[in-house]
Amino acid sequence: MESKPALIWFRRDLRLADNPALIAACRHPAAVPVFIWSPKEDGNWAPGAASRWWLHHSLSALANALEAEGSQFIIRKGPSLGTLLQLARETGARSIYSNRLHEPLALQRDTHVAAGLQHAGIRHESFDASLLFEPWEIHSRDGNPFQVFTPFWRTCLAPGEPGDPAPKPRSIPAPARWPCSLALDELELLPRLRWADGFHKVWRPGEKAAHGKLSDFLRGNLAGYPEGRDLPAEAGTSRLSPHLHYGEISPRQIWQAVQDRVRRSGPANQAAAGAFLRQLGWREFAHHLLYHFPFTPEQPLRANFSKFPWRKDAKTLKVWQKGLTGYPLVDAGMRELWETGWMHNRVRMIVASFLVKDLLLPWQSGADWFWDTLLDADLANNTLGWQWAAGCGADAAPYFRVFNPVLQGEKFDPSGDYVRRWVPELKPFAAKWIHKPWIAPAEIRKTVNYPLPTVNHAEARDRALEAFSFIRTR
DNA sequence: TAGCTCGTTGGACAA
DNA sequence: TTTGTCCAACGAGCT
Questions:
Q1: Is the CB of A70 under 7 A from strand C?
Q2: Cα(A311)–Cα(A362) distance, rounded to whole angstroms?
Q3: Is nucleic acid strand C under 7 Å from A474's C-beta?
């Protein structure tokens, strides 16, 4: 048994269960839960506006959960190291525990913090809690990081299933005196505009809500996941991404819950469960790549793409951001993003392909917009997704693979319900016109105010193929 | 080492 | 209407 209080430094592990740093802190006579807002340390990748909204509510949920355990949540802002040292002085803590992050700047910061704490004679221990497999543990036979998903995932799973999650600590020992805390509002995480009002209708941040959502998904949609996940009009996906990003639920907990469900419901769900867990595999792969190729949020993984002739066109970028491209499925996705802070994954690929290939705008401008507007904005996932779409990343789509927004709409939103939900001005259009309203009869078209296509897809496709051949020969 | 196979998510076109 | 083939290039990863 330890003799002094400890700090548990929460970052993106905003949960009580399966939290090894919290468990370690609870072995001390007192555990002081701490969150430090230090966006400067994340450089260009400090949480975007939507992500800050989530963070605010997630911190609030965790503060309530801690209070229910007889504890308190100490919130501060400022440089991480200085704030931790200050808190250690105030509480008499000689140990600090945290769970590991893997982004380049977070690693840099954590190395700096660890050195500073050691210098001050304070013990610091970090734990593996946000990934199923630490990025440095997985490598190909010749010792290099993987760049193709399938062999990566096979290697991850070769030794067996990931470990079991740990339970919530039985109790969180409180100190005799609490250090002071900022009020959550003092972090000013919520947007000043009323933009985020719609988020409340769709989302409830926090550990409890995350687990509720997981059980609903496992009971309702897991069986139909392989087909349902491609239909944006339906709730076929788990929508756990923002909860996962802030660690309200851990991948180990999801893994175990899925396996339990399969055991109870029989082998019929086995294939669906594999398809769903594979998505956790992509999250692992994204972190693996970002860890080993830390330049990729800004630079393409494939060096020849740095010479790609991207266009510069702020006006067209705006048209894409606002969902006014004249391609209904693209516009529906961009408006769903703006209104709910989330976009269906199938549609993410389509709007990304459209920006990069039809509009020839740089993938980085798409990544920046997603970073600011997605509640689940995650540097590793965002980087992998955009580089994949642009064809300049690991395991990328071949250059000639260009999504056709009309065909994708007819295939994955055949009724047009998804488009009508987010582009309500297209409600008068029947299914046969909904994805190409410009060829509908004039008497229908003149009743609605919806733009003509910004580009002709067939021409844009040829232009993209030509641009891609430009870097091929160089 | 050299050669082989394969690559989450597509589309156009021909039969 | 459905199904198969090609697009056409390349590097990762394995044997």
A1: no
A2: 7
A3: no
Q: Which chain C positions have some atom within 7 A of a protein CB? A: 7-15
User: Domains in chain A, please, with CATH?
Assistant: 6-129 (3.40.50.620), 131-165+207-292 (1.25.40.80), 303-472 (1.10.579.10)
Nucleotide nearest to A229 (CA to C1'): B9
Return the closest-CA partner of residue A35 out of A54, A20, A55, A18: A55
Is strand B within 7 Å of residue A279 (CB)?
yes
Distance A399 CA to C10 C1' (A): 11
No. of helices (H) and no. of strands (E), chain A: 21, 5
Angle in degrees, CA A380, A384, A390, rounded to 5: 150
The rounded distance, in Å, linking the Cα atoms of A13 and A135 is 18
Buried residues in A209-238 as b, exposed as e (16+ CB within 10 A): bbbebbeebbeebbbebeebbbbbbbebbb
Distance CA A151, CA A37 (A): 38
For chain A, first and last CA: distance in Å?
A: 64
Q: CA nearest A224: which of A272, A270, A275, A265?
A: A272
Confidence at residue A137, expressed as pLDDT on a 0 to 100 scale = 93
Which nucleotide's C1' is closest to A142 (Cα)?
C13
- Strand B: positions under 7 A of a protein C-beta atom: 6-12
pTM of the predicted model as reported, rounded to 2 decimal places? 0.96
C1' nearest to CA of A153: which nucleotide? B8
pLDDT along chain A (474 residues), means of 10: 91 98 98 98 97 98 98 98 98 98 97 98 97 94 90 91 94 97 98 90 97 96 91 95 98 97 87 93 95 94 86 96 97 97 95 93 96 98 92 75 91 95 96 93 93 92 82 60
**Amino acid A459 CA to nucleotide B12 C1' distance, rounded Å:** 14
Q: For residues A69 and A19, what is the distance between their CA atoms, to the nearest angstrom?
A: 15
**CA nearest to nucleotide B10 C1': residue:** A401
Q: Which nucleotide is nearest to A148 (CA to C1')?
A: C12
A241 touches strand B (CB under 7 A): no
